[in-house]
Amino acid sequence: MNTNLSSSAPSQLETDCLVAVVLDRGEKDKPSPSIECADAAVREAARDVIASGEVIGKSFETTLLHRPAGLKAKRLLLLGGGKAKNFSTAELRKLAGAAVRTLKGKNLRTFAFALPENGIAAAEGVRAIVEGAFVGNFEPGYYKSDRKEKDQKIDDVTIVVPGDPKPLENAMQAGRIVAESQNFARDLINEPSNRMTPTILAERAKKMAADVGLKCEVHDGDKIRQLKMGAFWGVAQGSDEPPALIVLRYEPKDPAKDVHLGLVGKGVTFDTGGISIKPADGMEKMKYDMAGAATMIAAMRAIALLKPKVKVTAIICATENMPSGKAQKPGDVQIAMSGKSIEIINTDAEGRLILADGLSYARQIGCTHIVDAATLTGAVVVALGYVNAGIFASDDQLYERFAKANQQAGEKMWRLPLDDDYKENLKSNIADMVNAGSRFGGAIFAAMFLKEFAEDTPWIHLDIAGTAWMEDSKPWIAKGPSGIALRSLVEFVKGWSA
Ligand code: BES
Ligand code: MN
Ligand code: ZN
Fold first, then answer.
1. Are 436 and 345 in contact (CB under 8 A)?
2. How far apart are CA 450 and CA 429, in angstroms?
3. Residue 352 known to be catalytic
4. Pocket perturbation via mutation, ligand 1, pick of 348, 433, 471 by most ligand atoms within 8 A of CB
5. Buried b vs exposed e over 262-293: b needs ≥16 C-beta within 10 Å?
6. What is the number of the ligand 1 atom nearest to the C-alpha of 350?
7. Which domains does the chain have, with CATH numbers?
8. Residue (of 143, 152, 130) closest to 5 by Cα position
9. Does ligand 1 have an atom closer than 6 angstroms to the CB of 344?
C-alpha cells in the first residue's frame, strides 16, 4: 500500500473517497455531531445528512455520500469517532483501519483521510492513521482459492494535512515501518503448522535479517543440547520436526552505554499438549502458539529499519510440542540451562520450559534487561479475557518504561502481580520446582516459574494467549492474528536510544 501526504484543501482533492471523522460533542444522551474538518465546504457537503439526525458520530458509524456537493472527491465517507472528550490517537488509529475495511469491501482501491484537527499533534496523527490503515488492510484468507477477499485491498492512501507536509514525512515512514512489521508478524502467525515449522520460521527470520541488515544465527538440536538447554530440549525431543534456537542481533554504531535489551519469544509452532494431550475441540488454534516468537522477529525488523541507538538481541525458542515414543512424560525431571531441576507435572505447560532456557541464554550473552512474549496460559484468558494482554514485571522502573510505550502504542495490557507469596506453589518433592500447579492463578504461576530463570535481571513478561488471535472481526481489524505487542515493544526499544 502506498501512503502519501497532501496539503490540498480537503474539498479540492480529487479522490475516489474523502474520509472525514465525525465526533459527538454533545452531552450524555443528546448527540451533537461535528465534522472534524476545518474546510467549510466539507462541513457544508455533510450538512443535510447531519441535520437529518441520521449521523450522530457514534464509534465506527459509517455514512457514505456519493457526489458530495462542492467537493472534488467522488464520495464522502463520514466516519464516527465517538465522544469527542474520549477521542485520542488510539481511536484515530482504529478509525483509519475501519476506513480501509469499509472501503475495500466496496471495491475501492484508493481514498484520502482528512487528518482531524482536534488536539492530536499532526505527526502523531499521521503515524496513527498510517498504522491503522495497514492493520486494516490485512486479510487472513491466504489459502482461499476464490481470491476475491485476498485481492480486495486498498492500494493507496492519502492523508490530507493542514500546512506543509514535509515535516510529517518521517512520521509517515515510521508508521509504515511499524505497521508493515506488525503485518509481517501476523503473516507468520497466520500460517498453519505444516507451513510454519521451526525450520521454516528460522528461514523466514534469516531472510528478513538479510533484507534489513541484521545478524542471524540459527542453532539446531545438537547445539541446544550442547548449551545444556534441558528444559527446551525436553519439549523438542518429542517431535520429528527439528527445533531451532534463532538469534537475531541488532548492534548500532554508538549504542546507549551499558544497555543490552533481550527479546525472548515463545515459538511453539504447534502445541498438541504433548503426552498431557489437549482435547480435539479447538486444538487447531494451537498453530498460533508461536505468536510471541513472530512478534519478536517482526519487532527486530522494525528496529533494524528505525535504527534506535541501543543494542538489542532477539532469542527465539522454536519447537513443536508433540506426543510420541520419544516425548517427555509427566514425572520426568529435566535440568535447565541454569542448572535448576524441573519436575514435569504437565507436558502441556511447555512454553515456560522453552522460555526458561531462552531467558538463561539471554542472561548468558549479557542482556541487561529482558522482555519475553508468549501465548503462555489459558489462565490469562480467564483473568483478562480477549481484551487485555497480561504484563508481569520484576522491576517497577522497567514496568513504568514499558507502560509508557504501551500507552503510546495504543495496545491494551494490564499488570498482574508477581509476589513471593505465590512462590510456595513451585515446590516439588523431587526437584527444584514443578512446571505446573493448581488451576487457580495459572498465569501468575507461569510468570513466577519464568522469574526463577530471569533471576535478578530486570524483566518483563507478556502473556498474549488471549490477545494474539482475534476471535471475531472488528471494524478496524480482521478476525485472526492480531500482531499484539509489536508496537509496544518497538516503542519501548526506541525509548532506550542514546
Ligand atoms: N499454548 C498454551 C496456552 C494457550 C491457551 C495459548 C489458549 C493460547 C490460547 C500453553 O502451552 C498451555 O497449554 N498452557 C496450559 C498450562 C497448564 C497445563 C498448566 C494451560 O493454560 O492450560
Ligand atoms: Mn501447552
Ligand atoms: Zn503452548
1. yes
2. 19
3. yes
4. 348
5. bbbbbbbbbbbbbbbebeeeeeeebbbbbbbb
6. 11
7. 2-161 (3.40.220.10), 181-497 (3.40.630.10)
8. 130
9. no
Q: What is the pLDDT of residues 57-110, one digit of tens each?
A: 999 999 999 999 999 999 999 999 999 999 999 999 999 999 999 999 999 999
11-34: per-residue pLDDT in tens? 999 999 999 999 999 987 889 999
Determine contact, residues 80/56, Cβ cutoff 8 Å.
yes
Q: In the structure, what pLDDT confidence band is assigned to residue 304 with cuts at 50, 70 and 90?
A: very high
* Cβ(436) – ligand 1 distance below 6 Å: yes
**Pocket lining: 347 vs ligand 1, CB cutoff 6 Å:** no
- pLDDT value, residue 369: 99
User: Which ligand 1 atom is the nearest neighbour of the CA of 289?
Assistant: 1
Q: Catalytic one among 43, 223, 228, 278?
A: 278
The residue from 186, 352, 451, 494 that is catalytic is: 352
Q: How far apart are CA 62 and CA 80, in angstroms?
A: 6
Q: DSSP letter string over 346-374?
A: -TT--HHHHHHHHHHHHHHTT-SEEEEEE
Residue whose CA is at the smallest distance from ligand 1 atom 13: 348
Residue 479 Cα distances to 218, 249, 471, 482, angstroms: 32, 32, 6, 8
> Considering the entire predicted model, what is its pTM?
0.98
Mean pLDDT of 429-449: 97
Q: Using alpha carbons, list the distances in angstroms from residue 306 to 3, 68, 174, 293.
A: 18, 40, 7, 20
Cell of 493: 526499544
Q: Is 349 in the pocket of ligand 1 (CB under 6 A)?
A: yes
404 labelled catalytic: no
Q: What would the pLDDT profile of 363-397 be if each residue is shown by its tens digit?
A: 999 999 999 999 999 999 999 999 999 999 999 99
Residues with CB under 5 A from ligand 2 (ion): 271, 348, 350
> For the chain, what percent of residues have pLDDT higher than 70?
99
Q: Whose CA is nearest to atom 22 of ligand 1?
A: 378
